[in-house]
Amino acid sequence: MELNTEILARIQFAFSVSFHYIFPPLSIGLGLLMVFFEAAYLRSKNIQYHQLAHFWTKIFAVTFGIGVVTGIVMEFEFGTNWAAYSRFVGDVFGSALAAEGIFAFALESGFLGILLFGWNRVKPWVHFVSTLGVFFGSMFSAVWIVVANSWQQTPAGFKIVGEGFHARAEITDFWAMVFNPSSVERLLHVWVGAFLSGAFLVLSVHSYYLIKNRHIELSKIAIKIALIIATIGSLSQLFIGHLSAEGVAKIQPAKLAAFEGHFISEKSADLYLFGWVDQENQRVLGPKIPGGLSFLIHGNFDSKITGLDKFGPGDKPTQINAIFQFYHLMVGLGMIMIGLSLLGSYFYFKGRLFQTQWLLKIFVIASIAPQLANQFGWFAAEMGRQPWVVYGLLKTSNAFSESVTSHQILFSIILFFIVYAFLFVLFIYMMNKKIQHGPDDESNIESRPMTQEIANLISGEIKGRAGEEV
Amino acid sequence: MLFGIDYETWWFLVVGALFSGYAILDGFDFGAGAWHLLFESEKDRRIALNAVGPVWDGNEVWLVIAGGALFAGFPNFYATLFSSLYIPFKLFLVFIIFRAIAIEFRSKEPGERWRKNWDRAYCISSIFLAFLLGVVLGNLLQGISVGENYLYMGNGFFEFLGFYPVLVGLTTLALFMMHGAIFLLIKTRGSLHEKLTKLLRVGMISFIILFSMVTIFSLIYYPHLSDKFRAYPILFFIPALAILSMANIPRLASKRNYLGAFLFSSLTISFLLVLVAVELYPDLLVSTLGPQYSINIYQAAASKGSLKIMLTITAIGAPLVAFYTFFVYKTFWGKVRLDENSY
Questions:
Q1: Is the ipTM value over 0.90, yes or no?
Q2: Contact flag A405-B156 (C-beta cutoff 8 Å)
Q3: Which of A102, A111, B205, B210 is exposed most, by the fewest CB atoms within 10 A?
Q4: How far is B160 from chain A, CA to nearest CA, in Å?
Q5: At what angle do helices B56-73 and B304-331 cross, to 10 degrees?
Q6: Which residues of A touch B341 (CB under 8 A)?
């Protein structure tokens, strides 16, 4: 494969967006838990909820900060690497992006300062309002970015103006663009995926504390709330994911065919539980449910499902096996999450969860499951859209920046690879440190680092101020 | 048309206001960061860092919004500018990342080496961010080699580092450092405060020297940057206002009225950007290959329908943004107080 500008630009986009997408789902998911913890504190005045909210806010700060900076990279990358795409979609994409900036980002970042630094400066309810502001801000940013991406999958509310180089999509109906055929299901799918990331991280960290015999009472409360979110979230994801797949079947049949490795249009299409796609011989090797795909999509084992054979070579994705695998891994991870949360709930109601070490141990590592599912889901969705960048309207091969050379992109790929690798190491290091340190409950209030230092600074400041007044 | 002004021009004003707001806000925190290594004690450094601590993130969001507004309203300009100045924008991103992690991680470990290295990262990235913003502005002012179909025809890698853009970059750095020093003066007391009064003087003098050089170079080598003023002498009131606000900075600083000085350094930034906007309008990007290749707001703009939607969004959103920005600054008003939540 020759490393031309298009391939390099795609590699760079895939790399930087995957890295970015580690963080926003965590911020949204942890935001939801922080809202619950703080609301519970305001209601019950139980200090443990306050300690949980405070502790998770510190973890949130790390994920949020990295999410913002890696997000700016994405916004700039549209212009630097995908100039032709930007010209084509700017008119439509633009209003979504403008709405995102002004309604979502400003809300989030405006209140973030108070959320992180305002604990001792504002009344508890004002702080709670700030937490809500940040949480809703992050939810809204998901709205607009998913709307924009869904428009690329299922364009609506626009007309094409101009020809050749000057052709572009112009918006004709804002609400039709916002509520394009796939945006609602996909948004719900993304939101719930984010809630699961947050809930499973909280489950993981507090299970770890229980195993290590630390922060026992706090962790029991946290696990209960996280388990509720995980159970409701993972079960509803099954339903939402199914809706989303039905939509794909209707509007992007080539993508559905790639998801399922469905080559030949036929009555009674089979559903593979897992397998390996043999693209050359147009078949999938693996266990299958005969007619299962037809049943899932149409509720009837005999319905016809369009296969990849109905599309010309330039109109369908080429990497069928990769798409099939990513899609199936996402579904499989979803099932694992359902299983784990049901198991956790069962043991909770039996009153044995906190003593069941093996399950707690599984929860510790399970926080990787929603992360991988989110990543794989997006891989499948975006690779399945190929060769189109805007479905049916603009091909990826016509979307990159004509004036940027492959050397420039290679330079910046290497640069960003180094920076992101470093950033990732730091992220893991900081998370680990904060988790090892734990919440500031009675068990370690004495050992909090820098307490002495801060006390000195504050008393120094008071002395300084007293000096001034004299 | 809205109040006799077309939608493209309205959006030009919106984008201008956003970038001006961004330059004022991130200007002071880049500027404050650029002085960082000159503060010696650990306590001073923590105070200086926490002066921008609760607001830097919000300030950077202005960049996201302004960038989004550019993409949305003038997609052709956005695409050409970002792909033409590929390398400076990528470097800008790298420094933005380094600066953010330096702020975030610096105080998380007690080790001296750890903190010193992050202090360096914070200071150097702040300097380069201010400089690179100026370099981009300098390139816009002198013009970019854009040819047919808005495509960049220059020769890539280091073309952005011409003499004039570098000069504008240094001027921007000096302006932001002056602005940042004033901000820190508002937020500090004691020996750090005293030290900053001296640094502010250095900042003001460097800015005035560099600014004069930029002015002279612009008048001599880039006549297109002053043709409008020669054609409409009445417009001279804009540079006059800019110079008047500059003059007020040392006057108020010597009276130790730093709030007033901050107001005027903010106004200076705005007036200078208004100056740029008036000179360029209706062009957004002047091509050095010939006026027929320049991109004006009408060629760059999104459709009328789209601009109308976005103006509506802005009209609803802007007061909200103003409200919570105000609220955050009010909460952290006054001298820096460190507590266990601080950086």
A1: no
A2: yes
A3: B205
A4: 13
A5: 170
A6: 116-120
Helical ranges in A82-182 per DSSP H: 83-99, 106-117, 124-153, 174-178
**Disruptive mutation site among A60, A95, A458 for chain B (greatest number of B CBs within 10 Å):** A95
For residue range B83-121, what is the model confidence (pLDDT) as tens digits? 888 888 888 999 998 898 888 888 777 888 888 888 899
Q: Which residue of B has its CA nearest to A73?
A: B93
Q: Which of B60, B90, B298 to mutate to test the interface with A (most CBs of A within 10 A)?
A: B90
pLDDT in tens, chain A (470 residues): 456 888 888 888 899 999 999 999 999 999 999 999 999 988 888 888 888 988 999 899 888 888 888 888 888 888 788 888 888 888 888 778 878 877 888 788 778 888 888 787 788 888 898 899 899 988 988 988 899 899 888 888 888 887 777 788 888 888 888 898 888 989 999 999 999 999 999 999 999 999 988 888 889 999 999 999 999 999 999 999 888 888 888 888 888 888 888 887 877 788 887 888 877 777 787 888 888 888 888 777 778 888 888 887 778 888 888 888 899 999 999 999 999 999 999 999 988 888 888 999 999 999 999 999 999 999 998 888 888 888 878 888 777 777 777 778 888 889 889 999 999 998 898 888 888 888 876 554 444 445 455 555 555 555 444 444 33
What is the per-residue pLDDT for A449?
A: 45
| Residues 372-411 of chain A whose Cβ lies under 8 A from any Cβ of chain B | 401-405, 407-408, 411
Chain B residues lying within 8 Å of A460, measured CB to CB: 43
What mean pLDDT, rounded, does chain B reach? 85
Asked if A113's CB is within 8 angstroms of B54's CB, the reply is yes
- The amino acid at residue A160 is I
B74 interaction partners in chain A (CB closer than 8 Å)? 90
DSSP-derived letter for residue A301 is T
Q: Which of A69, A80, A405 sits opposite B96 (nearest CB)?
A: A69
Terminal CA-CA length for chain B: 49
Q: How far is A145 from chain B (nearest CA, A)?
A: 12
- What's the gap in Å between the CA of A230 and the closest CA on chain B? 30
Tokens of A365: 């590592």
**Separation of alpha carbons B60 and A122, rounded Å:** 24
Q: What is the helix (H) or strand (E) element at residue B313, kind and residue range?
A: helix B304-331
**pTM of the model as a whole:** 0.84
Chain A residues with CB under 8 Å of B326 CB are none
Tell me the longest C-alpha to C-alpha distance in chain A: 91
A98 contacts B313? CB cut-off 8 A: yes
Report chain B residues whose CB lies below 8 A from the CB of A453: 110
Q: Does A72 touch chain B (CB under 8 A)?
A: yes
- Per CB-CB distance under 8 Å, the chain B contacts of A95 are 72, 306, 309-310, 313
Q: Is there a contact between B324 and A107 (Cβ–Cβ < 8 Å)?
A: yes
Query: Can you tell me the distance from the alpha carbon of A86 to that of A428, in angstroms, rounded to the nearest whole number?
Result: 34
**Nearest beta carbon to residue B100 from set A69, A98, A165:** A69
What amino acid occupies position A165? F
Q: Give DSSP secondary structure letters for B248-280.
A: HHHHHHHTT-HHHHHHHHHHHHHHHHHHHHHHH
Cross-strand pairs, B11 = none
Q: Which residues in A242-378 belong to E strands, given as ranges?
A: 266-267, 271-272, 276-278, 283-285, 288-289, 304-305
DSSP A365-405: HHTHHHHHHHHHHHHHHHHHHTTEEETTTEEGGGTS-TTS-
Paired strand residues for B283: B296
For B111, nearest residue in chain A (alpha carbons): A450
The encoded tokens of residue A83 equal 């100039």
Question: How does residue B158 score in pLDDT terms, banded at 50, 70 and 90?
Answer: confident
